[in-house]
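Quick one: structure tokens for this chain, please?
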Amino acid sequence: MAADGALTRVRGRREAIVKPASPKAMAEAEALAAARADPDDPPLTAQSLASLKPVARLRTLRRALSLTQEEFASRYHIPLGALRDWEQGRSQPDQPARAYLAVIARDPEHVWRALEGV
């Protein structure tokens, strides 16, 4: 690899730039057959898809607000241990907690102001 990142082939004193081949266009059936044949990353089955945990939307919300777990828990009066368990998938928030989190996601500043001094 050259200093600029270009791939080069060196033979003796001669260098030649190597251009990678473009991927071959495949029909959907060909792509699915190729994916099924890949032992390292087979396509998801309905069963394996059901066993996956959803991305923690709570973590995404907290990060969007630029808050640490401690800051988020303190600001919105949520037990820190519960917040950690929810984010790490060890437990799920119950229905009232999910509703509260939805309100926070909708208007975090008003919820924070409403809770100031509580």
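The beta strands are 8-11, 14-17.
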